[in-house]
Amino acid sequence: MLIVMKKGTTDKTVQSVVTAAERRGLTARPIPGGDRVSIGILYNKGSVDAAHFMGLEGVKEVIPVTKPYKLVSREFQLENTVVSIGGALFGGQDLPVIAGPCAIESETQTLTIAKAVKQSGAAVFRGGAFKPRSSPYSFQGLGEEGLKILAKVREETGLPVVTETMDVENFDLVEAYADAVQIGTRNMQNYSLLKRAGRSKLPVILKRGMSATLEEWLMAAEYIMEEGNPKVILCERGIRTFVKHSRNTLDLSVVPAANKESHLPLIVDPSHAAGVRDQVMPLAFASAAVGAAGIMVEVHHKPDEALSDGAQSLLPAQFDQLMQKVNAIHAITGTKAL
Amino acid sequence: MLIVMKKGTTDKTVQSVVTAAERRGLTARPIPGGDRVSIGILYNKGSVDAAHFMGLEGVKEVIPVTKPYKLVSREFQLENTVVSIGGALFGGQDLPVIAGPCAIESETQTLTIAKAVKQSGAAVFRGGAFKPRSSPYSFQGLGEEGLKILAKVREETGLPVVTETMDVENFDLVEAYADAVQIGTRNMQNYSLLKRAGRSKLPVILKRGMSATLEEWLMAAEYIMEEGNPKVILCERGIRTFVKHSRNTLDLSVVPAANKESHLPLIVDPSHAAGVRDQVMPLAFASAAVGAAGIMVEVHHKPDEALSDGAQSLLPAQFDQLMQKVNAIHAITGTKAL
Amino acid sequence: MLIVMKKGTTDKTVQSVVTAAERRGLTARPIPGGDRVSIGILYNKGSVDAAHFMGLEGVKEVIPVTKPYKLVSREFQLENTVVSIGGALFGGQDLPVIAGPCAIESETQTLTIAKAVKQSGAAVFRGGAFKPRSSPYSFQGLGEEGLKILAKVREETGLPVVTETMDVENFDLVEAYADAVQIGTRNMQNYSLLKRAGRSKLPVILKRGMSATLEEWLMAAEYIMEEGNPKVILCERGIRTFVKHSRNTLDLSVVPAANKESHLPLIVDPSHAAGVRDQVMPLAFASAAVGAAGIMVEVHHKPDEALSDGAQSLLPAQFDQLMQKVNAIHAITGTKAL
Amino acid sequence: MLIVMKKGTTDKTVQSVVTAAERRGLTARPIPGGDRVSIGILYNKGSVDAAHFMGLEGVKEVIPVTKPYKLVSREFQLENTVVSIGGALFGGQDLPVIAGPCAIESETQTLTIAKAVKQSGAAVFRGGAFKPRSSPYSFQGLGEEGLKILAKVREETGLPVVTETMDVENFDLVEAYADAVQIGTRNMQNYSLLKRAGRSKLPVILKRGMSATLEEWLMAAEYIMEEGNPKVILCERGIRTFVKHSRNTLDLSVVPAANKESHLPLIVDPSHAAGVRDQVMPLAFASAAVGAAGIMVEVHHKPDEALSDGAQSLLPAQFDQLMQKVNAIHAITGTKAL
Lengths: 338, 338, 338, 338
Prior knowledge:
The structure is a homotetramer.
Chain A: E1 2-5, H1 11-23, E2 27-32, E3 37-42, H2 51-54, E4 59-63, E5 83-85, E6 88-90, E7 97-100, H3 107-120, E8 124-126, H4 144-157, E9 161-164, H5 171-177, E10 180-183, H6 191-198, E11 204-207, H7 214-226, E12 232-236, H8 254-261, E13 266-268, H9 270-274, H10 277-290, E14 295-298, H11 316-333
Parallel strand pairs in A: 7-8, 7-14, 8-9, 9-10, 10-11, 11-12, 12-13
Antiparallel strand pairs in A: 1-3, 1-4, 2-3, 5-6
């Protein structure tokens, strides 16, 4: 349930409504908006009587929220959430691009790529230190050594860095080095990990599960927000379908659908959806055109030697072209205002 | 199998290779390209010995084609096929837009919409006279009366018109009125209908089946080309997936994949994929950005009163905005050269 | 809308209700049941006032039917429809099995297989004379010559025969030879063909479309029934999913779901779902166990030489085993009574 | 790579081959079979030269294994793995049934159901103490209190108990109470959890991911086996498709496909696939018929009051019927011998 306060209500009045709710055994959380404050009532088992709150001072309206999520919904917060990764703003007017190799392989490789993508205008650097791999016999990443290389990238290029965290055990370690953490497709419903991310101070990029509905995805984001971390960025990366011409099917209709349903920024990763280089560039253009809040692509200077996902990595020169065109498209289609 | 002739080979030499193939019981079909002629060998059961042809005058190369289709493939014809619908060119440098209501409901409705879309820059008018409907109790279209209204639209606006044909029985009738015929999603593998379309002089817009792979779709196009009609335009309109936030999932990765595999122009219909108006505009932008050879959208001046698919129809004013933006995007991303 | 008449109502009273409906511009169709008659009101655009009928003589109840289909629904007819193909009863207590090769290739092949499956207890013989093939270059069937061979099979073995009809043009021809016609997966929403089948006197086996929902499938059956042919048998043959270990995914949950929703018999074809021989037998057992009203399998005496679908055909000895086990399982799980 | 030893080779000879492999920097693991020992060579990056081993004493054959998994494959171990959960054998001649409520709600509820299913012949009791829920606001299970109730069930009924473990943090706790642990659908690719399960002494029931291919599922099992735990039971529970008449689509073709590819026992859970009670019974019959190595169903004595998944739980009387019929079917179709 959502209690919408009148404009200009004082903090004290807001607090008195929170206290009133708590006296009834409910959890109340104030949500500051652009010009007014709302109060979310969480965990109400069964229905809560709106009449309890309607008469209180400062209360304008009481809205029942019937969705299985609350904090992530537009009903709860009308304005876009803007998440900053080291100064790059997702959810605002810009179209920041995250780029880098699938996996951190060595310092030389990583720095070479980082300097190239920085030059072309990337806003954030990405690279995997812990790699979730379907087979236990595939390259699993450099671990902490990879994290140290990422730190060096930040130092030398000034780019903030994002990397994947696969479990609660290594979360502290990743947190110590990264500017943002990524939760991968396979872990979208790993609730222990989501809760740990909810207790982090870092922004979280939450990739959509292979066959997750929009509702399930938003509920996964709710797990993070519900623990106290509002800095969630959703990332579409293709869904599993019967199709054979691409690794996954990039679901761009989810962008307007999620923008309508939630205030969280949604970025698109065309590299994992495509699986082949030929498709990455046109799908990145389409992602900019459809109104994504950011784009994440894989770039490798020697894709044929990459330890993972070389086939879908762009060459630096291709990435440079991509940046020019996505910026030009973004200038036309702009951001989804609300 | 494909026999590639040397540049500048005379028609007579080409003919002598065709004759040689026919003497061996094979069907040979010359395919004129930009700067050279190739000869397709069709229906060869089992393998044909390349050596039979390598030594003949004018033959440059003999390429075995292992795909289950031939005429539609890039291997067979390197240059894009450009299909004209009443002067609007699909597969060239432009991005023609086809617009109109889902169903023809009345002369007034149809002319009102046609004038509006013409004004905004639509290149072709669309409207259904025969409607395939899942339920026998839904509105099935006006039939020939609808076709007559389409003819009137052409007369009054100068726009060429395209409409769906659902069966062999009514094909002659549709052919008598339309500038291009459309074969719908449900009929993509109606082989009798495909063969009839292959004997038509009109261009054919072939919609992708609800769960068709790219290969199956190209084989359906092959049925049409194989009967002698090379004027085939492919139309992506969304595939069936587990997703609930849109009616179908628009598969934009099929655009670069099909462009690589086939020389046929591929247009995108975001209206049927989306199912709701909110998504049509951003998906149309994405279609332009991904490199579609055209866009088809539904427009209705009174969508709330439409007899079918009102929820996904754009208002004329929205369509006007759409035209400006897709043209601006197309100017950036251009056409897929080959 | 459905008007349920009191038990023992005379035909004359029923007719007077029909006349009353027709006077209001409605189409009314009496549906005889086990112990009472109901009257279906078809094509009512908008709502029909139940009060018009509640007071009439003999009327017990008036039930609004909100589904997009009527004639096929359990609400409309409570008892199972039992369809006879040359004496083999689908929808009753038995589990008749339909067997034969994918395609009719020659008289010798066909008779050899027919005698074998007859001996093992098959109730109906199947074989394709017109074959829908994804590629125009694949074997398309023997046509009328194949139909003549089927007639010979019936003559020599006494087995009724079923074969596919692909279009309206050849429907008369197929009808002249077969005991039942099959409408294939690709034609499930070929409405012209469905309507033609609705005007046939023969039973129709309607295969489920590759990605058809249960509702769409029942609406396709409604097209046939609505034209006047109540002898429809539904056939599940696998749906398209992301799965790679079988050609299609056999959806056995559709059997109880359809039995709940519709009175029509539903048979299962495990051969097309599996695509490989290893899986056909266990899936046939599962089909019997789940309550199918019949089973259809492909049998070939020389599968390695078959012109189509040899990989999924059982050998006659395997079919013999299959028959014994499915009969034993059917004796345990019985038929879905209602 | 797999080194197959001659029959009757001594342990010492086997060990000398292992040592030879290790000297080359490879990991070698002896795999005892029915009548001979094989040695698996793991983690070989790139190809390993078979010639290194062909000449060694006792070596019969060297087989390259090209699959992305090794330990789980039939090529690696021909005989079925038989896994015991407290004496109930999965993978042998029997068809043990696991039954119980979705969630442990109270001692009374749990014991009531446990006594009922024991009486009907269930071999193992199931019940969730930690529940993965899509929404953070749904009932999340009783935690350790639930585990204590499970221990009491075992004490009072003698039934071994299985329950889900959702993360590494709570694994020790679950392990302390349960006879087998279950890894749920959402965690099939939670590699940290899989590795922890691989270091457990308990059998692991590994549910198939919502959209996992057979290959991905087997690779997840490989993660467990590779850490040293060979007691893995696969559990099919339905996959995500476009279908709306059931919660998921039970993929029974995976049973013969997995039995061909892997030696691990595969059980089927029709309750989660169906989502509605009506379908559970027929799908359980089908699971027995298709050759499952066990069945897992949800039973609740008051399904309308269940805190989760009541709609798909069978009543004890229905479960009793189910047991009789699945046993009768299993007597006909037997186990998949190999």
